[in-house]
C-alpha cells in the first residue's frame, strides 16, 4: 500500500537506492523507496560482482576504501558473502606498467595495499594464467567480490527492519512542484507527499530529471554491456578478479558456485535494448581464452545484458540540485555502482541529514558537466 506521506523518497530500487534507504532508515529517517519493477531488477542483478579500490584518482580510491570497509562490516553483520579475493590487473608493456605504478602510489597513499608483482607471482595466484606476454601485474588482495542478489536482499531486509518502506512495481509518473519546492510524487499507484527526493535510477536518471523539470545538464546515457557465466569448474581455481586491458578490456572471476563470470568492453548505445548479441559472445570467447587458454574447453551456460549508465568522464553525478528544493542525485555510475554503493549511501545520507560529508563528494559534482570541468576518466573495464 502506498503511504500518504514520507519525509524522503528514494527513486530506484537498485543497490544504490537500497543502501541509501538503509543508511537513512538506520539514522532514524522516514524513507520510502519507489521501484518500477522489483528490487535489483536494473543493473544490480546483472553486474559482475567485483568490488575494487584500484582506481586512478584520489577521490575514487578514498570512496572505495570506505566502501570496502562497509562491505566487510555489513557482510559480517547481515550474513552475506563478501570475499576479499583480490583484483589482478595484467600488464603487457612498459607504458601500462608506468601508469599502474602511478595508480599504486595513489592507492598506497591512502592505505590500500596494492603492489606491483612479477608474472611468476601472478601465476602463483592463478596457476591457469598464460603469462607469456605479461611483464608485470598490479595486485591488491583486499579487493574482492560479493553476490549482488544476496547482498542487495540483505540491505533491503535490514532497511525494512529499520522502518524503511520498499515499494516494488511502483513507477514514478511525475512530480508535484510548487514555487520550486517538491510537494509530492505521482506514481501508477497514486500520489505520495514528500519534500525530499533522491534520484537513484542510474540508467533512467535523465528521464526522472526531466520529469522533475531539472534544467541542469547532467549527461547520463545507458550503454548495453553483456556478461557470461560458464559451467562450473573446481571451486577456488580462479579466486581474484582478473583484468586485461590488452585483451578486450576483459574481466573474469569465479563465482561461489564454480562458474566463470565476466565480460569484455563490447559496448552498444546509448540504448535501452538488452538483447544479447552474437558479436559479444564471439569476443568474450576469444579474449577469455587468450588470458586463460584452459577456458576454451568450458561451455557457456548463459549470457545476458545490463547497463553501464555512463557519464563523459565515467564518474557518477552525486549531490544536491540547487534549483529545486530538496532534490538529490546519485546516478551515472558507469559500471561502478555496485561496488561504490555503501560509501555513496553514507555520502548521500550525510548531505541530507547534515548538509555536508567527509567523503570527497565534490569530485562527483553534478554541475561539473555544465561548467565543462570533467574529471580524469575513472579506471574502467568491461
UniProtKB/TrEMBL annotation:
UniProt entry keywords in alphabetical sequence: Oxidoreductase
EC number: 1.-.-.-
Pfam families per record: DAO (PF01266)
Source species, domain of life: Archaea
Entry keyword Oxidoreductase: yes
Domain FAD dependent oxidoreductase: 8-351
An example Gene Ontology molecular-function term: oxidoreductase activity
Full protein name: FAD-binding oxidoreductase
Protein's organism: Pyrococcus kukulkanii
Higher taxonomy: Archaea, Methanobacteriati, Methanobacteriota, Thermococci, Thermococcales
Amino acid at each position: 500500500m502506498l503511504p500518504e506521506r514520507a519525509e524522503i523518497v528514494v527513486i530506484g530500487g537498485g543497490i544504490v537506492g537500497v543502501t541509501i534507504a538503509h543508511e537513512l532508515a538506520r539514522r532514524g529517517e522516514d524513507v520510502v523507496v519507489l521501484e518500477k519493477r522489483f528490487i535489483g531488477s536494473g543493473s544490480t542483478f546483472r553486474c559482475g560482482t567485483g568490488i575494487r579500490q584500484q582506481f586512478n584518482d584520489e577521490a575514487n580510491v578514498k570512496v572505495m576504501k570506505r566502501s570496502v570497509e562497509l562491505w566487510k562490516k555489513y557482510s559480517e553483520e547481515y550474513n552475506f558473502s563478501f570475499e576479499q579475493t583480490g583484483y589482478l590487473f595484467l600488464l603487457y608493456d612498459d607504458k601500462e606498467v608506468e601508469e599502474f605504478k602511478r595508480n599504486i602510489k595513489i592507492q598506497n597513499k591512502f592505505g590500500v595495499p596494492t603492489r606491483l608483482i612479477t608474472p611468476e607471482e601472478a601465476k602463483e595466484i592463478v596457476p591457469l594464467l598464460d603469462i607469456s606476454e605479461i611483464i608485470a601485474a598490479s595486485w591488491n588482495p583486499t579487493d574482492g567480490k560479493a553476490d549482488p542478489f544476496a547482498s542487495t536482499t540483505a540491505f533491503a531486509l535490514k532497511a525494512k527492519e529499520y522502518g524503511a518502506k520498499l515499494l516494488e512495481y511502483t513507477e514514478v509518473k511525475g512530480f508535484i512542484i510548487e514555487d520550486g519546492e517538491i510537494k509530492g510524487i505521482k506514481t501508477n499507484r497514486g500520489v505520495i507527499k514528500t519534500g525530499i527526493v533522491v534520484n537513484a535510477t542510474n540508467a533512467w536518471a535523465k528521464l526522472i530529471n526531466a520529469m522533475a523539470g531539472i534544467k541542469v545538464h547532467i549527461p547520463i546515457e545507458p550503454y548495453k554491456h553483456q556478461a557470461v557465466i560458464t559451467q562450473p569448474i573446481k571451486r577456488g581455481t580462479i579466486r581474484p578478479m582478473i583484468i586485461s586491458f590488452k585483451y578486450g578490456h576483459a574481466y573474469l572471476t569465479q563465482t561461489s558456485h564454480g562458474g566463470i563470470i565476466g565480460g569484455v568492453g563490447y559496448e552498444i548505445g546509448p540504448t535501452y535494448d538488452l538483447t544479447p548479441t552474437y558479436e559479444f559472445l564471439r569476443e568474450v570467447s576469444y579474449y577469455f581464452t587468450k588470458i586463460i587458454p584452459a577456458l576454451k574447453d568450458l561451455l557457456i551456460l548463459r549470457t545476458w545484458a545490463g547497463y553501464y549508465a555512463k557519464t563523459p568522464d565515467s564518474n557518477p553525478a552525486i549531490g544536491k540540485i540547487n534549483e529545486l528544493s530538496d532534490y538529490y542525485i546519485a546516478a551515472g555510475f558507469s559500471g561502478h555502482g555496485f561496488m561504490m554503493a555503501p560509501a555513496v549511501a553514507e555520502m548521500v545520507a550525510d548531505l541530507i541529514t547534515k548538509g555536508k560529508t567527509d567523503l570527497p563528494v565534490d569530485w562527483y559534482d553534478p554541475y561539473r558537466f555544465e561548467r565543462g570541468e570533467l574529471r580524469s576518466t575513472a579506471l574502467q573495464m568491461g
